[in-house]
């Protein structure tokens, strides 16, 4: 998308192996003064962002090492210090009033996101009177108040965009036009992605709907060579027979916990790891869900994910639901084919519009961090995360058009509600 916000006993020396020439002494000093919680001397300029490369490390990443690993990627892309990257990761997780604004200020609230350049901040978009509307929330969300910028440039509230989006999809549901759709909060519009040959068909179908005349200025039809697609081709991030494992999960039975691993629901129900069959338990591939899980006889299921092609892992110790994920957050994924990549959340309302998944609840991540692609065939089901927090599991991505290289995932809370399991964090 063109619019972007755009414990092991291992010695410290070994844990930092492969981090290149990144001022190791400075990192150690930062750790000693509590960099995980408070960071000082942060850089604020984010210009000259550049591509990143996966470090060559093969270690077990504990909480601190995982933080530094992701921070190095971010710092390299944004041209800031690792200390500043860590500070920003902390700020990505402060309490923000998005849900309150969406429900209590639905007439004027048009979106909330994080911007990383020229400095890190939260942006709140309104149709009018934003400075007055936000005041009571600034008293409640003190950390957020120090970072917020209010804009009154939206023509339509987010609530009205969502209703219009739903109404349009319902009105054209019988047109049999293959497409994807999205709500773009940055541009305050509804986007429809359609193959070039179907542009006129979609435009004609939209013009026949009752609501289109009221919102046509906020609707964009984007022509692409290929639509977004699901990628198909014991812990998370491992190479299964056709896809990638997501997270370790458990489900209570009358004799105790049953444990297993997840992958995408659109993947084959017949999965194996290292030639060993993983018995299928259940799946949910409809609506907001694209998830299945398998038990793993002969394996000990643990709350880890692989994060590097050399086999490095990290422990998953927390989960972040869709409602608490912010547009603009920096998130990473691991898949068996494209390995470790990272990007920025650009939408929480992406609709793949497949027969099974025709709802705008998927998370779209843009590739402004300049990886070749964020994901590819075979990566489906792989984990999305930041440091040690689970964010979701990969569903698919774009291969052409303005979103080429972008990817989308199902949020982690849908793993649990879709399968009636618990994502393991201990």
UniProtKB/TrEMBL annotation:
A GO molecular-function annotation: serine-type endopeptidase activity
GO biological process: proteolysis
Lineage: unclassified sequences, metagenomes, ecological metagenomes
Cited Gene3D superfamilies: Trypsin-like serine proteases (2.40.10.10)
Keyword Membrane listed: yes
Originating species: groundwater metagenome
Keywords: Disulfide bond, Hydrolase, Membrane, Protease, Serine protease, Transmembrane, Transmembrane helix
Segments passing through the bilayer: 21-40
Classification via CDD domains: alphaLP-like
Protein name as annotated: Uncharacterized protein
InterPro entries in UniProt: Pept_S1A_streptogrisin, Peptidase_S1_PA, Peptidase_S1_PA_chymotrypsin
